[in-house]
Amino acid sequence: CVTLDVQAACWDTTVTQELLKEGFHRDLLVKVELGEDAGGCAVAARMHLPPGIYVDPYELATLQQHNLTKAVLIPDVIDLEAPEYLARDLLLLLFLELDTRCSRCFRAVVPVHVRYHRPAKGTEEALVVLESPEVLLCCCHSHLSAECWEPAEVDAPCSSDTTGPCQWHSTKHRPAHEELMLRVPVGLREHSSLVCALTLLTTGLCSGLILAAACKYGHFS
């Protein structure tokens, strides 16, 4: 690793994130542009995922086996079936890869999934707010400018392929952050009685048809 002069990078770092695809299963694209070349430093984005959205740890493990995505998920065991109101926040450390078209640009894509929300009153959608990620650098034994970078409390190696200790640093001068809003379709609370009645009716009808077929075609000793 080489020493990185980051005086300009503190002020010029930009972070953007974008949700790709449609529906409840999306791809989250994170892009970071530093103020200047990162030398031999590792670059990562620390992301706080609200209860309304999650990363599947089994899917993440498969992607990492094929070297498609590198990340650390905390906690690494989560309830995939829990609705939004029974889930909790997650912390994702996403390792970014150098963009070959730009020596100061890094990017990564990770699949994310939206959880089901409670029915709402008077609206057919709920909002999931994704805060802008925090940019982290790990430069091995190099020394970053104390005016621009400060040690970050991150219990993770410099890459997902190593297990040794690593000192990550975050910028003291935070880049401009923009929240990403995800609109999730939800049911109307006013329709609860109708939905329950139709569900009960359909269940009773199907059960009756199954029982009638069993009595007509079944062989009972």
Automatic annotation (TrEMBL):
It is found in: Endoplasmic reticulum membrane. Pathway: Glycolipid biosynthesis; glycosylphosphatidylinositol-anchor biosynthesis. Keywords: Endoplasmic reticulum, Glycoprotein, GPI-anchor biosynthesis, Membrane, Transmembrane, Transmembrane helix. Its main location: endoplasmic reticulum. The keyword Manganese does not apply. SMART domains: PIG-X. GO terms for cellular component: endoplasmic reticulum membrane. GO terms for biological process: GPI anchor biosynthetic process. Pfam families: PIG-X. The keyword Membrane applies. It is a single-pass membrane protein. Stabilizing subunit of the glycosylphosphatidylinositol-mannosyltransferase I complex which catalyzes the transfer of the first mannose, via an alpha-1,4 bond from a dolichol-phosphate-mannose (Dol-P-Man) to the glucosaminyl acyl phosphatidylinositol (GlcN-(acyl)PI) intermediate to generate alpha-D-Man-(1->4)-alpha-D-GlcN-(1->6)-(1-radyl,2-acyl-sn-glycero-3-phospho)-2-acyl-inositol and participates in the sixth step of the glycosylphosphatidylinositol-anchor biosynthesis. Probably acts by stabilizing the mannosyltransferase PIGM. PANTHER family: PHOSPHATIDYLINOSITOL-GLYCAN BIOSYNTHESIS CLASS X PROTEIN. Belongs to the PIGX family. This is Phosphatidylinositol-glycan biosynthesis class X protein.
